[in-house]
């Protein structure tokens, strides 16, 4: 499918790569593609800017929307690399099917991402720990307040040069185990990347901050006894030399970073198990001194070490020292980012040149 290009006549100055933050700046162009009359139209790249929508667009009233997140990385040879964009395309379609949005052929999704990144490739920052964040998203545009799947949609891709998601880098954070509010239940939308999963989580984040914590560790919605995600990230626990992470049973996001880390760990021969851990098991492991490392994993931060877990007033220092990044967390971060930035061999064939 042909992708039309309308170049921005007034390119913006590039921001200081040392002060990018996360999601503060956007490139000169964006990709748009509309769904009308039962089919996706031709995608087009146009200057980045506001869009006009009818006040009764269904996205405003019934939240029919979804998004994805991936990155483009500067390689040492001057090329630009995408990391497993096919996985994001597949997850986009899984989310779309759940919330009644038309799917997009995976090859078209990837080509849309590749094309807009290629046009704005001079926005890919090259300073250490920086990258170009890619945000594909889709939303209902039919003007109607009747509850039904929209008949029209808009797919877009915007780009943002970013630094580390957390300004503290790999400094471990404190996490509150949330035993009242829940993120998702089986049969719901926990496995999708839709905004409806994120807005209700903001209250829990505010609660966590009141306890001096950066985020929450969610428990299962049925019994509130088994750990699931941490904030908006998948979570991994190293107990007595073995890494555990929650299974993909419909309540957690099938993270691309999660999948990649599991593949790396298995390649290294590190024992891994995808199963639900209970809070009681974490408390017992902490008491026995076998709770060695806990870390969140996701596209934005890659690895976020957790130094302390707070539960019902009890504080557990992971590994006995809440200020220390665990050796496995650091090793995974170095390996995965090394592959993403093209500095280490990509034996899995995950990166794709733009």
Structure description:
The model has no long low-confidence stretch (mean pLDDT 96). Helices cover 23% and strands 29% of the residues. It is α+β, with helices and mostly antiparallel strands. Helix 2 packs across helix 3 (106-119). The protein starts with a strand and ends with a strand. Helix 4 links the parallel strand 10 (173-178) and strand 11 (215-219). It has seven helices and 19 strands. The protein is globular. Strands 1, 2, 3, 4, 5, 6, 7, 8, 9 and 19 form a ten-stranded mixed β-sheet that branches.
Provide a concise account of the structure shown:
The chain is α+β, with helices and mostly antiparallel strands.
Topology diagram in text:
Blueprint: E1 4-5, E2 29-36, E3 39-40, E4 44-47, H1 58-62, E5 65-67, E6 70-74, E7 80-83, H2 85-98, H3 106-119, E8 131-140, E9 153-162, E10 173-178, H4 201-210, E11 215-219, E12 227-230, E13 234-239, E14 242-245, H5 256-268, E15 272-274, H6 279-288, E16 291-298, E17 302-311, E18 314-317, H7 327-340, E19 351-353
Parallel strand pairs: 1-4, 10-11, 10-17, 14-15
Antiparallel strand pairs: 2-3, 2-4, 2-9, 5-8, 6-7, 6-8, 7-19, 8-9, 11-12, 13-14, 13-16, 16-17, 17-18
Amino-to-carboxy terminus distance: 17 Å
Q: Which strand-content bin applies to the residues?
A: 25-35%
Number of helices: 7
Using DSSP, what is the number of strands?
A: 19
Give the overall form.
globular
The low-confidence runs, each spanning 5 or more residues with pLDDT under 50, are none
Classify the secondary structure makeup into a structural class: alpha+beta
- Rg, alpha carbons: 21 Å
- From N to C, what is the helix and strand string? EEEEHEEEHHEEEHEEEEHEHEEEHE
> In which range does the helix fraction lie?
10-25%
Major beta-sheet overview: 10 strands, mixed
Mean pLDDT: 96
């Amino acid at each position: 499918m042909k992708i039309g290009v309308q170049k921005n006549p007034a390119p913006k100055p590039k921001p200081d790569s040392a002060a990018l933050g996360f999601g503060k700046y956007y490139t000169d162009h964006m990709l748009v593609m509309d769904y009308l009359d039962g089919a996706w139209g031709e995608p087009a790249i146009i200057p980045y800017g506001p869009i006009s929508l009818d006040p009764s667009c269904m996205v405003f009233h019934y939240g029919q929307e979804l998004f994805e997140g991936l990155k483009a990385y500067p390689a040492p040879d001057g090329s630009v690399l995408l990391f497993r964009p096919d996985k994001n395309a597949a997850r986009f379609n899984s989310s779309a099917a759940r919330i009644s949005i038309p799917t997009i052929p995976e090859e078209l999704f990837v080509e849309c991402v590749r094309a807009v990144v290629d046009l704005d490739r001079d926005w890919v920052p090259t300073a250490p720990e920086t990258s170009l964040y890619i945000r594909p998203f889709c939303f209902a545009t039919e003007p109607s307040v009747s509850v039904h799947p929209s008949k029209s949609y808009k797919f877009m891709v915007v780009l943002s040069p970013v630094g580390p998601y957390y300004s503290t880098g790999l400094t471990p954070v404190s996490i509150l185990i949330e035993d009242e509010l829940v993120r998702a239940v089986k049969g719901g939308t926990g496995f999708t990347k839709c905004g409806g999963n994120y807005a209700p989580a903001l209250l829990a984040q505010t609660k966590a901050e009141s306890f001096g914590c950066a985020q929450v560790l969610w428990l299962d919605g049925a019994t509130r006894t088994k750990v699931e995600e941490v904030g908006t990230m998948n979570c991994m626990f190293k107990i007595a030399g073995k890494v555990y992470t929650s299974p993909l049973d419909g309540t957690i996001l099938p993270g691309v970073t999660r999948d990649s880390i599991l593949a790396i760990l298995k390649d290294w021969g590190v024992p891994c198990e995808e199963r639900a851990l209970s809070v009681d098991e974490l408390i017992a492991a902490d008491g026995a001194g076998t709770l060695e490392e806990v870390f969140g994993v996701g596209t934005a931060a890659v690895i976020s070490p957790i130094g302390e877990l707070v539960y019902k007033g009890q504080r557990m220092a992971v590994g006995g020292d809440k200020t220390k990044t665990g050796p496995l967390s650091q090793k995974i971060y170095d390996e995965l980012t090394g592959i993403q930035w093209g500095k280490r061999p990509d034996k899995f064939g995950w990166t794709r040149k733009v």
